[in-house]
Specification:
Blueprint (H helix, E strand, L loop, with lengths): L1 E9 L6 H14 L2 E9 L6 H8 L2 H11 L6 E6 L9 E5 L6 H11 L11 E3 L5 E3 L2 H42 L1 H10 L3 H9 L3 H9 L2 H6 L2 H22 L2 H19 L18 H4 L4 E7 L3 E6 L16 E8 L3 E6 L3 E6 L11 E2 L12 E5 L6 E5 L4 E6 H4 L7 E2 L13 E2 L7 E6 L3 E6 L12 E2 L5 H5 L5 E7 L4 E6 L2 E5 L1 H4 L11 E2 L9 E5 L1
Parallel strand pairs: 1-2
Antiparallel strand pairs: 3-4, 5-6, 7-8, 7-9, 8-12, 10-11, 10-13, 11-16, 14-15, 14-17, 15-20, 18-19, 18-21, 19-24, 22-23, 22-25
Helix pairs in contact: 1-2, 5-8, 5-10, 5-11, 6-7, 7-8
Length: about 525
């Protein structure tokens, strides 16, 4: 369907505006054209503008449409309270007092007709006589330059007039002081002009001015009047020369004249100027309410989202041949990050997954992992939260939650794996400066060292955590079976079959060493560790 904009000029058309707009709508509907009505008011004094606004009130419909489509969960209610006292009054009720009203209005400004932007093509002829498209700054700067030139020419013109008048007054004063002799020369000489110029050292202009003055007026001249006019013109001359001799004073004169003109002829601004940032629509995540959720990942890469954090993924039902793999808790407006067996990371909005009442959806329908890769871990990281990212080949690094996320369907190469290495589940960091890294190999070697010895990277292989020969990693004879981060003063609980061993801080000192060492052997009976857990 074609879309057009119809501009309707109006001046005191309250009686006819409704019918006019309705007829335009009917004609557009018959022609199968979608039209936007723009009413241009030319200073109406009746109720025409209010009636036109009511006829074309698209804002309410746009906000209501977003609410019905569940794209505006931040708004609980919308009311139109317009009346004769308030021609346009829309009341928007936020869902709760935690909703940022400024952010909500910025979103509505960007997505509805509460605020519209219009392009202006300022193509004009400049002072150089050539047409050009000029920006507001260039246009005002050029106009100010033109204004300064105009004022300079006006002042110079006035200065020339003042100097010419002073020159004539000097000659007139000489004539007054020698009035009898001047009159006698005029009466008796055949060429009085030449005689006056020679006798009193007058210029041609001064002599002509004296001769053009009637004798009666010449006799009536008063010295005080001539000297008074001379003083006034001399003061004006000095002022004009001072302004013209200083660019700063000239600009100040232009400024004062503009201010005076604005006070004399200006009126109140009809459209107020408000300084604020550009209106931007909220992202999908910003519009989603922040609620506790748990994302559950299955062995075959199916994901679902359950409300709340008290969720047991192992007790859920799965498809035939599938089972529980991992789960992560967070908020509904966070990104769920998935790691695959090739070391790539992917992120999807947590709220976009199906409910946990079903069996979820396959991640391969929305993501494109490399051939043969399988999803091995899930987490819901906060952007500034730090994580220990590592492989069982004994390498790792510290990364921020924001570095784990990827906007691409193909994901991000997060962890570089040595040949034969596999991805370990990332561990959240409590205190980077005081946490201790504990690494245990499948041969029962344990090493503890400070977490701060590992670098913080956005991707890569990382530094060596525990020394494991690369050949033994490739053949899967030896590898890191588990990692743990111990806060200050915490103990480590090891599980080997049905037996458990608790290593307290004093016991763990035996296994402390430099990063990248082989570590010390655990006691007999605990060299085949099945699981490790941090206590305290």
């Amino acid at each position: 369907m074609k879309q057009i904009s119809v501009i309707v000029p109006m001046f005191n058309e309250a009686q006819h505006i409704r019918r006019t707009l309705e007829s335009v709508r009917r004609a557009a509907a018959c022609a199968k054209i979608q039209c936007e009505l723009i009413v241009v008011d030319n200073g109406s004094t009746d109720s025409g503008p209010q009636l036109a606004a009511e006829e074309g009130a698209k804002v309410l419909e746009q906000i209501a449409a977003q609410m019905q489509a569940k794209k505006l969960p931040l708004v609980a209610d919308l009311r139109d309270e317009s009346d004769h006292e308030n021609p346009t009054r829309i009341v928007i009720v936020p869902r709760s007092n935690r909703v940022d009203a400024d952010e909500l209005m910025q979103h509505l400004f960007a997505t509805t007709d509460l605020e519209n932007s219009y392009r202006v093509n300022m193509n004009m002829i400049g002072t150089d006589g050539r047409p050009a498209v000029k920006g507001l700054h260039a246009m005002i700067s050029e106009w100010l330059g033109f204004r300064i030139t105009t004022v300079r020419r006006r002042l110079q013109y006035r200065l020339d007039k003042v100097l010419a008048r002073l020159h004539l007054l000097d000659g007139l004063l000489i004539a007054f002081l020698n009035l009898d002799e001047v009159i006698e020369i005029i009466r008796n000489e055949d060429e009085p002009k030449a005689v006056l110029m020679e006798r009193f050292a007058l210029s041609e202009l001064q002599a002509d001015y004296i001769l053009d003055t009637r004798l009666r007026q010449l006799a009536r001249l008063e010295e005080m009047k001539i000297r008074g006019e001379q003083d006034a013109l001399a003061a004006e001359r000095d002022k004009l020369q001072k302004i013209l001799g200083s660019e700063k004073l000239l600009r100040k004169t232009v400024r004062n004249e503009l201010i005076a003109d604005a006070e004399t002829y200006g009126d109140d601004r009809r459209s107020p100027l408000i300084e604020r940032t550009e209106a931007r629509a909220l992202s999908e995540n910003d519009l989603v309410p922040s609620e506790p959720v748990t994302v559950v990942l299955s062995e075959r890469g199916w994901a679902r989202c359950a409300k709340g954090h008290d969720v047991d993924g192992t007790g859920m039902s799965y498809r035939a041949g599938d089972s529980f793999l991992a789960q992560a808790s967070g908020r509904s407006n966070q990104q769920a990050v998935f790691l695959d067996s090739s070391g790539r990371s992917y992120s999807l909005a947590a709220h976009s997954f199906p409910s946990a009442r079903g069996q979820g959806e396959p991640l391969t329908g929305r993501l494109s992992p490399p051939p043969g890769a399988e999803f091995v871990s899930v987490l819901l990281p906060e952007d500034p939260q730090l994580y220990l990212v590592a492989s069982d080949a004994g390498y790792g690094f510290v990364a921020q939650g924001a570095d784990l996320q990827s906007r691409n369907k193909n994901g991000k190469a997060l962890l570089s794996l040595p040949e034969g290495g596999r991805v370990l589940a990332p561990l959240p960091v409590t205190q980077r400066e005081t946490d201790q890294v504990v690494a245990i190999s499948n041969e029962g070697r344990l090493l503890m060292f400070p977490l701060k010895d590992l670098p913080q990277l956005s991707k890569g292989k990382g530094n060596k955590i525990l020394s494991v020969p690369s050949a033994r990693v490739k053949s899967r004879e030896e590898f890191v079976m588990g990692l743990a981060l111990l806060p200050e003063g915490a103990s480590l609980v090891l599980t080997a079959g049905k037996r458990t061993l608790t290593l307290k801080p004093a016991d763990l000192e035996h296994y402390r060493g430099e990063r990248g060492r082989r570590g010390n052997k655990l006691p007999r009976g605990f060299q085949k560790v099945d699981a490790l857990q941090v206590d305290g």
